[in-house]
Design goal:
Blueprint (H helix, E strand, L loop, with lengths): L11 E3 L6 E3 L3 E4 L4 H6 L11 E4 L4 E3 L5 E4 L8 E3 L1 E7 L15 E8 L2 E2 H9 L5 H4 L5 E3 L3 E2 H4 L6 E6 L2 E7 L7 H8 L10 E3 L7 E3 L4 E6 L3 E7 L1
Parallel strand pairs: 3-15, 5-11, 6-18
Antiparallel strand pairs: 1-2, 3-4, 7-10, 7-16, 8-9, 8-15, 9-12, 13-14, 13-17, 17-18
């Protein structure tokens, strides 16, 4: 079989300390999964079922610990926001996964950024329309090296932080997730068959805000290290 157009190579997310990579398949993002962030966005957090949105796989931009990613300020926005996130990496296929088995499907973890055209997201929200132009645009999902669970364990706790130009903007702990990693995996698997290479961006804590050209973002999670991104 011949392709009329050559297919894109998969996004290769490096595994820390090795020459191996994981091909990114789908990118699931959990909305409003920290109570304080839900409040700052104008919602009352509770334990209603989590909701998800998707980013295309090619929105992911791998970032090494030894580099500063140059991230272009996107078009059609005047309010470009950062969101620091713990990312869970799925390692085997599963659907309708029982909660008590959910963490068995997580192969590793990484530091992630869910970059957002906030003004466009809010406009779509007010109109009752999908968020894609606010969330699913090019290069909107920087991702750090993947750490295997065998090296770092699972994340029921751990500091998460983000600074802009050296000033702390987000500082919280994974314990404040409304829906844990295991609960999110189990719930999501009711609606989709999860496959190796799927990423789950697990939500962001309070303190989201805008950046401008020239700003430098540092985002990190305890046991996973820190990434550097410069807006250009």
């Amino acid at each position: 079989m011949a392709f009329v157009f050559s297919p894109e190579a998969p996004i290769a997310a490096p595994v820390v300390g090795t020459n191996d990579s994981i091909a990114v398949r789908r990118v699931y993002c959990i909305g409003r999964n920290y109570a304080a962030h839900a409040r700052e966005m104008g919602f009352d957090p509770d334990r209603e079922p989590p909701f998800f949105f998707l980013k295309p796989d090619n929105t992911v931009v791998p970032v090494g610990y030894d580099e500063t990613l140059s991230l272009e300020y996107p078009t059609e926005t005047q309010n470009y926001h950062y969101e620091a996130e713990l990312v869970a990496v799925i390692g085997k296929s599963g659907s309708n996964i029982p909660l008590e088995q959910a963490l068995d499907y997580v192969w590793g973890y990484a530091v992630g950024l869910d970059m957002t055209r906030r003004d466009l997201q809010m406009k779509m929200r007010e109109m009752g329309r999908p968020w894609e132009i606010g969330k699913a645009f090019d290069r909107s999902a920087p991702l750090g090296p993947i750490h295997p669970v065998t090296h770092v364990g699972h994340f029921e706790t751990g500091d998460i932080w983000l600074s802009v130009n050296g000033e702390t903007k987000q500082k919280s702990n994974i314990t404040h997730l409304i829906w844990s990693v295991a609960e999110s995996v189990a719930y999501l698997s009711k609606f989709f068959t999860l496959e190796p290479g799927d990423l789950i961006y697990t939500g962001t804590p309070e303190g989201v805000g805008p950046v401008k050209v020239g700003d430098t973002i540092n985002v990190g999670i305890e046991r996973l290290g820190e990434l550097t991104v410069k807006i250009v």
